[in-house]
Automatic annotation (TrEMBL):
<feature type="transmembrane region" description="Helical">
    <location>
        <begin position="105"/>
        <end position="130"/>
    </location>
</feature>
<keyword id="KW-0472">Membrane</keyword>
<keyword id="KW-0812">Transmembrane</keyword>
<keyword id="KW-1133">Transmembrane helix</keyword>
<protein>
    <submittedName>
        <fullName>Uncharacterized protein</fullName>
    </submittedName>
</protein>
<dbReference type="Pfam" id="PF00822">
    <property type="entry name" value="PMP22_Claudin"/>
</dbReference>
<feature type="transmembrane region" description="Helical">
    <location>
        <begin position="12"/>
        <end position="35"/>
    </location>
</feature>
<dbReference type="InterPro" id="IPR004031">
    <property type="entry name" value="PMP22/EMP/MP20/Claudin"/>
</dbReference>
<feature type="transmembrane region" description="Helical">
    <location>
        <begin position="71"/>
        <end position="93"/>
    </location>
</feature>
<dbReference type="GO" id="GO:0016020">
    <property type="term" value="C:membrane"/>
</dbReference>
<feature type="transmembrane region" description="Helical">
    <location>
        <begin position="136"/>
        <end position="160"/>
    </location>
</feature>
């Protein structure tokens, strides 16, 4: 009895895409280069001007950079929820591969978590893009958009598997 016995091609593709999307999202989540302009760069958790960096959840940051306070916290919340949804997706995929292969509810849970990740990532990206003081976006911002696209494609494959349009691998 193999690990992939009875698992469709769509599930395998979706699983690979979910893992890649999670890694891309993880890189973007922690990188301080959502916005870059000369010596200035900012991420979800750190803002740097030259060699001076500030933690975005510290009191010093909130005192110095009042313009960032509300909307940046909203972006942090949405991206954190997206991170948790992607972790939940991986956990449910693990269950599906190991102990609960025949449970239809897991198929539904997988694509719901994948689409939730997409929605939460896009909400954070939209807020950041609309409120940021510059349009010089860094690689982490682009990675975040790429991770949403990857999760969307993975969700479509999971949905197609749930609808029963694939043959076993």
């Amino acid at each position: 009895m193999g690990l992939f016995e009875g698992i469709s091609r769509f599930v395998l593709i979706s699983t690979i895409l979910t893992a890649v999307g999670f890694l891309v999202h993880l890189i973007s989540y922690g990188a301080p280069y959502w916005l870059k302009s000369g010596e200035f760069h900012v991420g979800l958790w750190k803002l740097c001007i030259g060699s001076q960096c500030y933690n975005t959840v510290s009191k010093t940051f909130k005192d110095l950079f009042v313009a960032y306070e509300g909307w940046l916290a909203a972006v942090q919340a949405f991206e954190t929820l997206a991170f948790l949804a992607s972790l939940a997706t991986i956990a449910v995929i693990g269950l599906r591969f190991t102990v609960m292969k025949e449970q239809k509810i897991l198929q539904i849970g997988i694509f719901i978590f994948q689409f939730a990740s997409v929605g939460l990532i896009l909400l954070g990206v939209i807020i950041f893009g609309a409120k940021s003081p510059s349009s010089s976006y860094g690689y982490a911002f682009v990675f975040e958009i790429i991770s949403a696209i990857i999760f969307l494609i993975a969700g479509v494959f999971s949905f197609m598997d749930w609808r029963g349009t694939s043959v076993p691998a």
